[in-house]
Amino acid sequence: MADAKLTALTEDTTPSTSGLLYYVDDPTGSPVSRKATIANVLALGTGKLTPYTNAANFYRHANPTATSRFDALINGTPTSAANSVVTFDTVTNGNVTSITPAATGQLAQMRLYNTTRGDYALIVSATGATVTLDRNVRTLANPWADNDAITNYQTNIGNVDGRYYAELEVTDATLLGKSALMLDVSCRSDTAGDTISLHPFEAAASSKSQNAAALVAALTTTRTVYVSLTSNVIGLGWTGTSITALIIKIEGYVT
């Protein structure tokens, strides 16, 4: 409406980067009315933030009904295949939902560490008492074996405020080597107050945590966060055992 005040217009709380903004070019010289996409405005800033559209989730976790920390022992010899399958038992923290991605083809994958062998692999999928990995762990320098200790938790980040941080490794080619990411984090839980948190790949501190909280039970809360990316890794943790949505989408990156 040409005669409507700005304050009278309907607010768009989830604008797309293709949306248009009105601005005045050269206001102190020869002012001219112009339009610009939100994407192009974001890209200005200090010349660092680049919007990035990708239909795939950065990371989406299957409904976690356990804590964000997972610890278990390998039960039997892992399969020797391009994507090794590891069977586990003697779970001492969390359960299989602590390490289960909602789908393949995401922009990042969770690391599964073998603390007995001193290395890790990326989780492709998990179900029941098995986890499928992105590599053949039987052909590593220290082959994975029966009774090895496995975990998604390491002290590279650690824990703070009740959240144990797993590590998400970026695998999308466009995002590799970037210094920071802008992400939309969506949280829904049956318990109000549960939180999903992202953290830089460094020692955990409350001041560095970027949190999305379930403000109301069974309703989704989404928050846009900015998190540093070091060695293509960020931390993911959550509180509670009743989160029913954990979805992270990419908005942009800093080179």
Structure in words:
The chain has a six-stranded antiparallel beta barrel with strand order 5-6-9-8-7-10. Strands 3, 4, 14, 17 and 19 form a five-stranded antiparallel β-sheet that branches. The chain has three domains: 6-44, no CATH class; 51-62 and 160-254, Jelly Rolls (Sandwich), CATH 2.60.120; 71-151. It is built from one helix and 19 strands. The longest helix is centred in the N-terminal third of the chain and has 7 residues, at 38-44. The protein has one helix at 38-44; strands spanning 20-25, 32-37, 49-51, 59-61, 71-74, 85-93, 108-114, 119-127, 130-133, 149-151, 159-160, 163-164, 166-170, 180-189, 195-200, 210-213, 221-228, 233-238, 243-254. The chain is 3% helix and 43% strand. By secondary structure, it is mostly beta strands.
Compose a concise summary of this entry.
This protein has 255 residues and is mainly β.
- Biggest sheet strand order reads 5-6-9-8-7-10
**Uncertain regions spanning at least 5 consecutive residues:** none
How many structural domains are formed by the residues?
A: 3
Mean pLDDT metric: 91
Residues in β-strands, percent? 35-45%
CATH topology of the largest domain: Jelly Rolls
CATH class of the largest domain: Mainly Beta
How many beta-strand segments? 19
* Share in helix: under 10%
Which sequence of SSEs, written as H and E, runs from N to C?
A: EEHEEEEEEEEEEEEEEEEE
> How can the largest sheet be summarized?
6 strands, antiparallel, barrel
Tally of DSSP helical segments: 1
Structural class call reads mainly beta
Q: Specify the overall morphology.
A: elongated
Distance between the termini: 39 Å
| Global Rg | 21 Å
Oligomer: single chain
What's the architecture of the largest domain in CATH terms? Sandwich
